[in-house]
Design a protein that fits this description.
By secondary structure, this protein is mainly alpha-helical. The protein is built from 5 helices and 5 strands; from the N terminus they run H-H-H-E-E-H-H-E-E-E.
């Protein structure tokens, strides 16, 4: 009994394999072209670009041109290397914190009177009180010698104390308002019953 030798022609198998590989590569190429032309892919790229810009603190005006996203990679490179925007933002935040130390803000209909703690904050330079149910300005407003802005819009205030004040549904303004040497702005708009200001003002 002799040995049988089986001979295969590998060129047929190789040809079949190469044909399949070619078809697979062609499918991949067509899919890639389809994705590149797809608006969905472009939107995804633009969205990722916008997110990256926002992370780096790049202002919207830098990456939008005529309302359209300009995916210029140089913008990202420039802002990535220079942290000046972040420095400016930090300085601006610091300046705002410093400024806010001198500003009193009160809003909401739950307020029917000024908080007691306010009388101890005589260093304040601005009062912004709006949309409250407060009816009177406390006489201790006279202690606020550095007061520059007194905004009292949309409250229930109907008269000013002689110590000083400003605002709604006013029928008259006290002459003592003229004693406020540091007052820089007095907005009495919307008070239709005031026909004239005192001579002292």
């Amino acid at each position: 009994m002799g040995h049988q030798v089986i001979i295969f022609d590998f060129s047929l198998i190789r040809g079949l394999w190469e044909t399949r590989v070619k078809k697979s590569k062609e499918r991949q190429r067509k899919e890639k072209e389809r994705l590149e032309k797809s608006s969905l892919e472009k939107i995804k790229q633009e969205w990722n670009f916008i997110l990256e810009c926002r992370k780096k603190g790049i202002p919207q005006s830098k990456y939008l041109k005529n309302g359209f996203v300009n995916t210029d990679e140089k913008i990202l490179d420039t802002y990535g290397k220079t942290p000046q925007v972040q420095k400016r933002r930090a300085l601006s935040d610091e300046a705002n914190k410093e400024r806010n130390k001198f500003i009193f803000q009160l809003s909401g209909e739950q307020w029917m009177e000024f908080p007691d703690s306010l009388k101890e904050q005589t260093h304040l330079k601005e009062w912004h009180v709006n949309n409250t149910l407060i009816q009177t300005i406390p006489p201790y407003i006279a202690l606020f010698q550095d007061l520059r802005v007194l905004e009292l819009s949309k409250n229930q205030i109907n008269h000013l104390p002689v110590e000083i004040g400003n605002f709604n549904n006013l029928k008259s303004v006290p002459p003592e308002l003229g004693d406020c040497e540091n007052l820089e702005k007095l907005d009495l708009s919307g008070n239709m019953e005031i026909t004239e200001l005192p001579f002292e003002v």
